[in-house]
Write a structure and sequence with these properties.
Family (chain B): Belongs to the binding-protein-dependent transport system permease family. CysTW subfamily.
Shape of chain A: globular
Order of helices and strands of chain B: HEEHHHHHHHHHHHHH
Number of helices of chain A: 10
Protein name (chain B): ABC transporter permease
Largest interface: A-B, 91 and 86 residues
Structural class of chain A: mainly alpha
Membrane topology (chain B): Multi-pass membrane protein
Radius of gyration of chain B: 23 Å
Subcellular location (chain B): Cell membrane
Largest sheet of chain A: none
Helix content of chain B: over 70%
InterPro entries (chain B): MetI-like, MetI-like_sf
Radius of gyration of chain A: 23 Å
Oligomer: heterodimer
Strand content of chain A: under 5%
Number of strands of chain B: 2
Structural class of chain B: mainly alpha
Number of strands of chain A: 0
Number of helices of chain B: 14
Shape of chain B: globular
Strand order of the largest sheet of chain B: 1-2
């Protein structure tokens, strides 16, 4: 191997600083959430305890965070399943040009770039005008899909742009029906990316604030609940909640990455 | 190329769930906002009577121009900063990390924060930037300053810092993606012809990374221009941008006025993105 140029070391230092910038604050509130009962929102640590985590579990101390968590989790799963199914179907559709496909593509891009608050406001207004109650599982669900579907579709585009069509041709030559080709050839090949779409769908939904603001109705999702806390809670209990949800997000990410690893390993074993 | 009827039918059938969701939760809501922007409001309800007063008020109020200017300023500064950081990080990952295994790991390290809560990531700046925060204590400890800096938190600085923290990834991913597709033999050819590292960067890599830069730009600009929560939270409600103008009207139940502002914001964003899209074919670049 040729020796590293000097720029390599400068760039490595830059990268390390960037990673510290990304993770530093989160790690800091992780540490601060173990403040003692008298501790405040900043250093120095005033003792070390689980006080603020206990505080979270006392119903009256904060709002209905457990209800909010359950709703966010359920909504995340709903959005995840819908995003996977709809994105894969649309991804398959877009593999061949069809009349109007360009317009539909630009509409999907528009869905990505239109400011979240407009979707929130518009969906809220519509439900209001037809006399329907906004609810996280109906209006909230739909509003979040306008954010997760473009991501899902863009990932599917990236996948199918790199897809080797010879596998399909081989299947067809051997007499497979179109459905058999998709079921036994296409889907297994794109499986890792589908897991990626699922991860995006769940995470984007679980953390989404703006699109749920006016569409979740009277029962808050977790991000809305947390935002409510930022305006009236001045104790490290909010850090404890932040630490817990961050740990939860990490577990979800690890679970998805683990799934990817298992898929890859199975494939290698079979080969 | 002629498109057969059956192919068109098959395409729309497969895409129909996507079409339905976008119609119901994107197109109709936007149409609704446009309609409501011409309605009138009383203190408690909205009145479906055609009027231009929302727009009249919007365009004659000096606040509007101030707030739009603030929005562009946030967007431009954030864009320039995220581009600089994003390009450097992507360049490092794509051209200086040799093993593809290590590349994946480092890429994931950058991606993971994006999948966790934005609001928590905003909150996490408080112990850093506050009056008694780590930054001030460190600076005082080093003897750089003897009074805590007040402008670190709840200022334009903290708003932009949070934007950069939240959105740099949207630059890294598309730029990294295009860089990985650059044919490495082009770089070798440049080197064989005697180009320096800097010349390779400016004459080969940057021009070939333009599509990724464009896509990242689209992401960052739209996210910052539509934002209302970061500005409200990180400025301590001191600063305003268009998103906040809208959300303030909403919290006062002034839906027609919020809708008119929304329409103007929407047109602005679509014009900017439309212009940027002329320079890049997104479908081909994925």
């Amino acid at each position: 191997m040729e020796p590293r140029p000097r720029s390599f070391y400068w760039l490595t230092a830059f990268f390390v600083l960037f990673v510290i910038f990304l993770y530093g604050p989160t790690i800091t509130i992780g540490i601060l959430s173990f403040q003692g009962p008298q501790g405040g929102l900043t250093f120095p640590m005033n003792g070390v305890s689980f006080h603020w985590f206990h505080n979270l579990f006392e119903q009256q101390a904060v709002g209905d965070i457990w209800g909010a968590f359950r709703r966010s989790f359920a909504l995340g799963l709903m959005v995840m399943v819908a995003t996977v199914v709809i994105s894969v179907m649309a991804g398959l559709a877009f593999r061949k040009r069809f009349a109007g496909s360009g317009a539909l593509f630009y509409l999907t891009i528009a869905s990505l770039v239109i400011p979240s608050i407009l979707v929130s406001l518009g969906v809220g207004l519509i439900f209001n005008q037809v006399g329907a109650k906004v609810h996280w599982s109906s209006s909230g669900f739909g509003a979040q899909l306008t954010w997760t579907l473009p991501f899902g579709l863009l990932i599917m585009f990236a996948v199918f742009n790199r897809f080797d069509k010879r596998f399909e041709e081989a299947a067809r030559d051997q007499g497979a029906t179109p459905w058999q080709t998709i079921r036994h050839v296409v889907l297994p090949i794109i499986a890792p990316s589908v897991v990626g779409v699922a991860l995006f769908g769940f995470s984007l939904s679980y953390d989404e604030f703006a699109r749920t603001l006016l569409t979740a109705g009277s029962h808050n999702t977790l991000p809305l609940e947390i935002f409510g806390m930022t305006t009236n809670v001045t104790k490290p209990v909010i850090y404890a909640l932040g630490t817990l949800t961050t740990v939860f997000s990490f577990l979800i990410i690890v679970a998805f990455l683990g799934t990817l690893w298992v898929i890859g390993k199975r494939r290698r074993d079979r080969a | 190329m002629s498109l057969s009827k059956s192919e068109t039918l098959r395409g729309w059938a497969l895409a129909s769930p996507l079409v339905l969701v976008l119609l119901a939760f994107l197109v109709l809501p936007i149409v609704m906002i446009v309609i409501v922007s011409f309605w009138q409001a009383t203190e408690f309800s909205i009145v479906p009577a055609f009027s231009l007063e929302n727009y009249e008020f919007l365009f004659t109020s000096p606040v509007t121009y101030k707030v739009f200017w603030a929005t562009f300023r946030y967007a431009l500064i954030t864009w320039a900063t995220t581009l600089l950081i994003g390009f450097t990080v992507a360049y490092y990952l794509a051209f200086h990390i040799r093993s593809s295994h290590m590349q994946t790991v480092l890429f994931l390290v950058c991606t993971i924060p994006f999948l966790t809560s934005n609001i928590i990531r905003m909150i996490s700046w408080i112990p850093f930037l506050g009056r008694n925060g780590i930054a001030n204590q460190a600076l005082i400890g080093m003897g750089v300053i003897d009074q805590p800096l007040e402008w670190l938190l709840y200022s334009d600085f903290s708003v932009i810092l949070a934007f950069v923290h939240l959105y740099t990834l949207f630059m890294i991913v598309p730029i990294f993606n295009t860089m990985m597709r650059i044919d490495r033999s082009l770089i070798e050819a440049a080197r064989d012809n005697g180009a320096s590292g800097w010349q390779i960067l400016t004459n080969v890599i940057i021009p070939l990374s333009k599509p990724g830069i464009m896509i990242g730009t689209i992401f960052v600009l739209t996210l910052v221009m539509g934002d209302f929560i970061t500005v409200r939270f990180m400025s301590g409600s001191q600063a305003a941008n268009v998103g906040r103008l809208i959300s303030n009207d909403i919290s006062l139940l002034q839906y027609p006025s919020a809708s008119a502002t929304s329409v103007v914001l929407l047109i602005t964003v679509l014009l900017i993105i439309g212009t940027l899209m002329r320079f890049v074919n997104i479908r081909r670049e994925l």
